[in-house]
Amino acid sequence: xxxxxxxxxxxxxxxxxxHFAAQGHEVIAVDNYLRRLIAQQTSSEPLFxxxxxxxxxxxxxxxxxxxxxxxxxxxADLRWCDNLFAKHKPDVVVHYAEQPSAPYSMRGLxxxxxxxxxxxxxxxxxxxxxxxxxxxxxxxKLGTMGEYGTPNIDIEEGWIDVEHKGRSQKFxxxxxxxxxxxxxxxxxxxLLWFYVRLYGLRVTxxxxxxxxxxxxxxxxxxxxxxxxFHYDDIFGTVVNRFLxxxxxxxxxxxxxxxxxTRGYLNLKDTLNCVxxxxxxxxxxxxxxxxxxxxxQFSVNELAxxxxxxxxxxxxxxxxKSIPNPRKELEDHYYNAKSTGLLxxxxxxxxxxxxxLVRMLETIMSHKDRIDESKILPxxxxxx
Amino acid sequence: xxxxxxxxxxxxxxxxxxHFAAQGHEVIAVDNYLRRLIAQQTSSEPLFxxxxxxxxxxxxxxxxxxxxxxxxxxxADLRWCDNLFAKHKPDVVVHYAEQPSAPYSMRGLxxxxxxxxxxxxxxxxxxxxxxxxxxxxxxxKLGTMGEYGTPNIDIEEGWIDVEHKGRSQKFxxxxxxxxxxxxxxxxxxxLLWFYVRLYGLRVTxxxxxxxxxxxxxxxxxxxxxxxxFHYDDIFGTVVNRFLxxxxxxxxxxxxxxxxxTRGYLNLKDTLNCVxxxxxxxxxxxxxxxxxxxxxQFSVNELAxxxxxxxxxxxxxxxxKSIPNPRKELEDHYYNAKSTGLLxxxxxxxxxxxxxLVRMLETIMSHKDRIDESKILPxxxxxx
Lengths: 383, 383
Hints:
The structure is a homodimer. Chain A is α/β, with parallel strands linked by helices. Helix content of chain A is about 40%, strand content about 20%. Chain A is built from twelve helices and 14 strands. Chain A has helices at about 15-20, 35-40, 55-65, 80-90, 100-105, 110-135, 180-200, 240-250, 265-280, 300-310, 340-345, 355-365, and strands spanning about 1-5, 25-30, 70, 90-95, 140-145, 160-165, 165-170, 200-210, 210, 250-255, 260-265, 285-290, 295-300, 320. In chain A, strands 3-2-1-4-5-8-12 form a seven-stranded parallel sheet, with helices on both faces. A three-stranded mixed sheet of chain A has the order 9-11-13. In chain A, strands 6-7 form a two-stranded antiparallel sheet. In chain A, helix 1 crosses helix 9 and helix 4 (about 80-90) packs parallel to helix 6. The longest helix of chain A has 25 residues, at about 110-135.
């Protein structure tokens, strides 16, 4: 297959590009380094530096003997995006190309505007790139479990049958998200569903939970092939942040009561899920939605697990509740379904103590790079 | 009250500006004439020319002795919009400032892009104008009944309690619209609901059905104060189009089977509804939704009514089904609730034969301006 990876410089994008290239697919890695720019602007650099895509593609070729094409440009630019699709006419498009930070989107007007324009704009341009140049291709779009928020009923897999006054209708599951970033993904899904209905696009929308992890099969050969790894409050996901805090000797920053429950998954399972979706295309005119996570935890449960893993490597991990910078329920019902990807064959990599210990060991080797000023929340939702 | 009317040059905007000014409110009429530009670009000029806002404000002052301030500029320009809110700090914002044509939004990529950027961009900028300069003001936003589409269950008034596996949750009523224009209004509602929840804005979202009519109390004094009146396939609403077709001797253009059912209202009732909403503000942190229409009709029923009214003025009105340029159900369940505005005191102006006859007589006096080439659909959804 010819696969466009949009947002290929990201935490998930680069491992995905390597994963498909290693299997012999023709991979085109696309990015404009927007996340690198924002990371510098917000003083949120990752734990270790990662080479640019051209250099990583060369390293990957040297290690694995396979090529990854690189295209650097702005997918929010309609003309550039159209040219990209016209040139490559992909079979599969994996779309990670969004500003991915909830705190950044809540920082102020400029950041909110950028998040709206970039995320909606890229999705719109990608839709039209496909309509105009590869209408039969399959779009694998990264959504987020955060689209659903924390409703008081079970979270189904994308769709829900509503019974009402003796009649029934299948609807997109109603969504209400907790940040502007998550809201742009709600809008993406609405927009995709419109174009799927109207023009018969094939789309899989992967509602993904927070990802943790550092390792993928292709990165083991060379540390320079590892994904960028954020531990800061802007780009860091919670498990990754907690592990770095454990090593830095900073108490784990539980926001408020810590009862916030979400579905989590290992980075390796992101690759497996995107692979399964890509190899089992949605039908024409189908918006297929999977909830992409393997285990549900509360923040307190995550802190307990990191505490226990830390103990095994001789760390005395403290946990400290701090005022919640976000506006969210801290104690709520949460029961989300996630059977679709299992039915396609997913074999989950669970969050065992061994997995956490191994991550701690890897992070330990970069301990000197940890900057404690990047750890505490710098963006308040009510700021 | 100090009231900003955004999109004040439009079919509904200008009558609304006059309505509030006549009551002694301080009215600021805002527009950038985008609809006029699109009308020229698509050869869709209205039945009669309307003076620009400055000239109409002068005429209105001469006839009624009241002032309307005019601000000409682009609300999709963040800086201009911010300055507008900083300068006027309104109590009420009536937001009509969107590209309002479904066919235009479906014409091609350029038109789709403009509709997305303008409609979402203006709503985003208006939200931030309010957050930064008048957070207690009340936003009266024009949505559309088209957001709901044609679900197989009753359409409730904005919200629905979903019972699911023994638990329940109140959600925004799930919406799936039939054009990109209507979809931008779905996205608007999602975005408004996010900012209402997060920052306590007051918002009323009026889900309005297609409007018909020419007359309002303030326009009777001078024909130059009448709203722009479109009968073309791009901007014309169905009843207005049918009445012009009746006079032009063109068979009424029923799309497909004609069983498409929607809720309709008289232009006078748009003014009454917006007035009632403005004088009864939503609470802080409330997204209040009203379904704004007074009667449900199928397209075939509308054609019958125009036929009957035509007969009274000596017209032999023919009706002809033509291939449906849209992608929509032509025969479907439709039962939409609309009690909220009645409870606030709305006294509907129904679509009586007298009302249609009076419209026919007014249109008759402009018969020489009718251009038959603008009548048949020029945009196909599958084009």
